[in-house]
Amino acid sequence: MVMIRKAAVEDLMPLKELMLQYIVDFYKRPKPDENELNKLILAMQSNPSIGEQFVAIDGDSLIGFATLYYTFSTTRVKKMAILNDLFVSAKHRGCGAGEALFRQSRHRAHEADCASMTWQTALDNKRAQSLYEKMGGQNVNDCWIHYEIDL
């Protein structure tokens, strides 16, 4: 049975391995600097007001993670949660870990008195889209255009 809990310091190494699978293998992005990745994980653990990570565990194995970042909405005059990452290792998909991570993230955003939780996924990630729609998510892409600039 899959258990979800907040990421802890002892999760650093297996969490980094999963994050590298997510960043490099799944999204085909360059491998990040190891020290920067460590700093990111540890920053959320030491200062949960910027973000929090949750891990999915099956037995003794860390099999997935979700990352929430917090920001504010001026138009809603409230805090918002951004579900920036939700990832389950390929061999563990379909066991309910993704749903459990999503539920925990939504619950935590509600506990933190956020007005909403937002997220994105790649256009071709049909499996994730199916999960998000099953969980009650709505594609609001017709409302806003997403821009990004590398710095």
UniProtKB/TrEMBL annotation:
Source organism:
Falsibacillus albus
Q: Which domain of life is it from?
A: Bacteria
Record-annotated N-acetyltransferase domain positions? 2-151
**GO terms of molecular function:** N-acetyltransferase activity
The membrane-spanning stretches of this chain are: none
Keyword entries, A-Z: Acyltransferase, Transferase
What's the protein name? Answer: GNAT family N-acetyltransferase
InterPro entries named in the record: Acyl_CoA_acyltransferase, Diverse_Substrate_AcTransf, GNAT_dom
4Fe-4S in keyword set: no
Q: Which SUPFAM superfamilies match?
A: Acyl-CoA N-acyltransferases (Nat)
